[in-house]
Specification:
With 306 residues, the protein is an alpha/beta fold. Helix content is 41%, strand content 14%.
């Protein structure tokens, strides 16, 4: 039987009038890359991204180097970033309380992102956790963020379906969102982590979230291909989403999913999509094109190694 949530009125105008937010996530591009990118090259690339004017940059992660060896140099990287002329918030992805404590040793980091999931199978694959442990971690992270006057960004993986055989429904998604809101967590992103989301499932999830929680402006993290990115993006946008994660070049994916890396929503495609809909964007396009050129050189250079 469907779960009964409090009846709330969804105000389309309030959602549609929300300003666009873009989070650039080089961390996602780099984490599964097969060759180690030298630290100074990462710093140079991130310093260029900081000039573009993205709302936020998920620059790296503080996790075990055994899990993500590509990002083992996060501490060295963050200490060399030039934020003097940047308005972008700096975000680090973490998998547990220890990672957040380590991240908050560095003043430039504004927030940590935690990868929750409504698939217990994926929680085990990704961060060796389960629902009970993950909820305890979320509580600890929220307390730490409050103590440090920092922000917790909460990703909900498998928000649009479950490829692992676990039960999935929008009711489960709504239950977890309600729990998170009751904990005081309002920065929530619905994630298509394995790229299995469809036009129908993305539309349905956003419609239900907007209907039951009209004051929550959930973001989206899409893993896409050159053939399906627009349908997925349009499904989210047409149903009220105004906060988008993207990656220059569309690189990346989740190396812990047990599935091939799908790729991310390409930032250049997102920008054009938004421009076609007359959405105002405060981006330094000169710096963006420079970053795009550097990314193409950086990743192709190491991808060609044998």
């Amino acid at each position: 039987m469907p779960i009964a949530f409090p009846s709330k009125t969804f105000s389309t105008n309030s959602t549609m009038s929300q300003p666009i937010k873009i989070l650039e996530t080089p961390r996602d591009a780099m984490q599964g890359f097969p060759y180690f990118i030298p630290t100074q090259k990462k710093i140079d690339y991130l310093n260029l991204l900081l000039k573009v004017g993205f709302d936020a940059i998920d620059f790296s992660s503080f996790v075990s180097p055994k899990a993500i060896p590509q990002l083992a140099d996060s501490a060295e990287v963050v200490q060399s970033l030039d934020l003097s002329q940047s308005s972008s918030q700096l975000i680090a992805t973490i998998g547990n309380l220890k990672g957040a404590q380590r991240a908050f040793e560095f003043n430039p980091i504004d927030a940590v992102a935690f990868p929750f999931s409504i698939s217990e199978s994926f929680l085990q694959k990704n961060i060796h956790s389960n629902f009970a442990l993950a909820e305890n971690t979320i509580n600890d992270l929220q307390n730490l963020c409050n103590e440090k006057s920092r922000r917790l960004k909460l990703y909900i993986a498998m928000a649009f379906g479950n490829p692992y055989g676990d039960d999935w429904s929008t009711d489960q998604l709504l239950l977890w969102i309600e729990k998170l809101l009751n904990k005081g967590i309002h920065d929530i992103v619905l994630a298509d982590t394995t790229g299995d989301g469809t036009l129908e499932s993305i539309s349905q999830s956003f419609q239900e979230v907007q209907r039951h929680f009209p004051q929550l402006h959930a973001g989206i993290h899409l893993h896409t291909t050159p053939t399906n990115w627009e349908l997925k993006l349009k499904a989210a946008y047409d149903n009220g989403c105004r906060s988008f994660d993207a990656v220059i070049g569309g690189l990346g994916g989740c190396p812990m999913s047990g599935k091939p890396l799908t790729g991310n929503l390409d930032t250049s495609l997102l920008i054009q999509f938004l421009k076609d809909r007359n959405q105002p964007l405060s981006l330094n396009m000169k710096s963006f094109f420079e970053a795009q050129t550097l990314a193409s050189f950086l990743f192709s250079q190491f991808d060609n190694q044998s």
